[in-house]
Carboxypeptidase Q (Acuticoccus sediminis), 417 residues
Amino acid sequence: MTDRTDSQLLDEFNAICDCGGRLSGTPSEEAATALMARLGAAATGVEAARKAVPYTAWRADAASLVGPGGRSCDLQPLLRCGATPAGGIEAEVLDLGRGTPEAFEAHAGEIPGRIVMVRHELMFSADTIHRRVKIQRAIEAGAAGFLIVGPAPGMTVSGSASVAGAPTLPAAGISPETAAALCPTAGARPRVRLTIAVSERASTATNLLFDVPADDGCVVLSAHIDGHDPAESAIDNGSGLAVALEVARRAIARRSEWARGLRVAFFNVEEWALTGSEHYVAALSDAERAAIALNVNLDSVAGGASLTALTSGFAGIEPFLLDAAGSAGIPLGLHRPFQSNSDHANFARAGIPAFRLVAGFGDTGAAARYVLTARDTRSAVQPGELTRAARLSEAILMAALTAPADATAAWRRAETA
Ligand SMILES: [Zn+2]
């Protein structure tokens, strides 16, 4: 690897971060989509096919949280959360700690009419309980609202509160300091006023597809464009976008070795329950699905020292991935249980072998814990993490593009087969 490619990778990463947080439906996301169309065309040598993705755009128009004594608290409304009545809701806060199923069960009688408070968890770990699971339990138990406490001092947290059309609650991220001020002692039930005003409108986002065909089928290399408001969405997913561009460039320089084609896919509205990739996979015919040998999904590939493949139950791809990582001399962790935390999940659900490459999986000290907070900025990413992710991704992608057809058939073997 030369210095030139390293500096181009870093330059493109910075240019993506310069667009801002890239929340779907904002000028920041539109600028990033235009940038990725341009950079993707330069990297692949083909113009982007633009695929419209209809979705319901959501925006918080106003939000406030007022605690005892009129204390005004910081908060970040969760994406697609519900609105309160115009004057807000006044209710007691019930602290359920981490928000485990056991805690919801133990306090079931106290939840109706109260605002449930839980903790945000490290997203990239094996035993994480997803925020939407906790919100769902709060709804079922009759809560009036939902607060989720950020992972580090001074930080609120973002994330989506609901999938499209599903019931939801007024819901917001708050900082640990706010949580401690509201509930200074165990069992405290402070009365607060939570006000959230939202508006929704029918909108259209854009997926970008770059096809570099070869003889037989293709490998889909994907990364999502959109992000969250609070910062630069640098780890999630400026890192994946920049690495995808770099890896596409390197693979195309070795095109004469390919046995199948490459489709580079930059999906949109990923942070809204994987909408862009769901739309893409749903539009594929059975023959088109069968022609995709593998989805290599790069999402948050920097922000931690380790790299892990989330293999979605596709045991058949694991020996292949380990071989490719070994050839690059880069350790690769494997985590097999299906995780619906990025676009690879929609491929896997359709029976297409798919994995997500992620950095810092299970590492509680990694910068990856800042994802969805104001600290997901370029300074949370070490340049060496980007170059290492690019080297590993290149080895995997080239192995996938050159593998004989009988080898790729084995990739479709699932865990239970
Ligand atoms: Zn992501």
